[in-house]
Amino acid sequence: MSKANLTNMSKNEIRFTKMHGIGNDYIYIDCTEAETPSPQKLAIEMSPRHTSVGADGVILVCRSEKADLGMRIFNSDGSEALMCGNGIRCVAKFAYDHQLTAKTNLSIETLAGIKTVSLIKDEASGEVTGATVDMGEPVLECADIPVYSPVNVKRMIEYPVQTEQGEVVVTAVSVGNPHAVIWVDSIEQAPVHTLGPKLEHNPMWPNRANIEFAHVLSPSKIEMRVWERGSGETMACGTGACACAIAAIATGRCERKVDVILPGGTLNIYWNPDNNHVYMTGPAVTVFDGTYTPHFTKTD
Fold first, then answer.
1. Which of 95, 112, 217, 284 falls between 20 and 30 A from 133, CA-CA?
2. What are phi and psi of 240, to 5 degrees?
3. Tens digits of per-residue pLDDT, 8-20?
């Protein structure tokens, strides 16, 4: 994947599109042509909700030598993420709406590998309203997630972890990003803002982790909240929804097709037993277009 470039820059202005997938909002920038200032600094500067554009971060739509397009994801704290399930749906819609591709089935390169995205269009208007993403095979082996355990277990499923708030039982899984799924009796009372950041930075995760607090409503329905590494609590997390579905299916709590309800909306997850791939379906929405002038310079 080519390095990120910001296109349409004139007198330091950056053209962007604000988009969201069930409330997981990012600032999308066409980076297929021109040079870029620091995307890390740009994410930190543009993400604050009360003093700037406001978002969970910045996503750059890039050229790729291996796929139809590439994407790079920068969280609101400037850290770079490997994959974003809600973001990749919006990247596909962005590319189609901005005539970067005429394909409705396209490949997108991420730092977690190449993913295939199939756009969903409204029959009456022809507008792209969402997408289904082939997220690939989930990773449950600790060494590949990666996650460390004191006794070097191969898989961390329903595994007790000691924290400052006592013992919690986690299931570790990667769907491009590392996740810890914790089952709770009530997501409203889940310790998202206290336990979430503690577990995100726990030494067991060499690259930090996303922390999900989930509750099973039925064999086909889960509700969850998420503490995302680098962003805090967000309205939704696509890879997190997949992680919760995988954890629920792996522990016998749910069936292969699961609706995952997040604060921002619902994602449909299917773990296909034939090829072991996880498929995520959900909306992609454009909020507004705008221009932004960075306060930092290329030499900052």
1. 217
2. -65, -40
3. 444 678 999 999 9
Residue 182 tokens, joined: 């914790």
Query: Taking the model in full, what pTM does it have?
Result: 0.91
Q: Which residues contact 183 (CB under 8 A, 6 or more apart)?
A: 169, 214, 215, 216, 253
Nearest-angstrom CA–CA distance, 183 and 171? 9
Question: Among candidates 56, 52, 9, which has minimal Cα distance to 29?
Answer: 9
CA 247 to chain centre: 17
Beta bridge partners of 130: 120, 283
> Looking up tokens 């007198």, which residue turns up?
11
Number of neighbours of residue 252 by Cβ within 10 angstroms: 8
Average pLDDT of span 247-268: 98
Angle between helices 238-250 and 85-97 (to 10 degrees): 140
Active-site residue numbers? 84, 237
- Residue 269: what are its φ and ψ, rounded to 5°? -115, 135
Distance CA 34, CA 62 (A): 10
- Give the tens place of pLDDT for each residue, 26-77: 999 999 987 667 899 999 999 999 999 999 999 999 999 999 999 999 999 9
Strands of the chain, DSSP E? 14-21, 24-30, 57-62, 69-75, 80-81, 105-110, 113-121, 128-134, 159-163, 166-174, 178-183, 210-218, 221-228, 232-234, 257-262, 265-271, 278-283, 285-292
Dihedral-angle region of residue 190 (phi above 0 means left; psi in -120 to 50 means alpha; beta otherwise):
beta
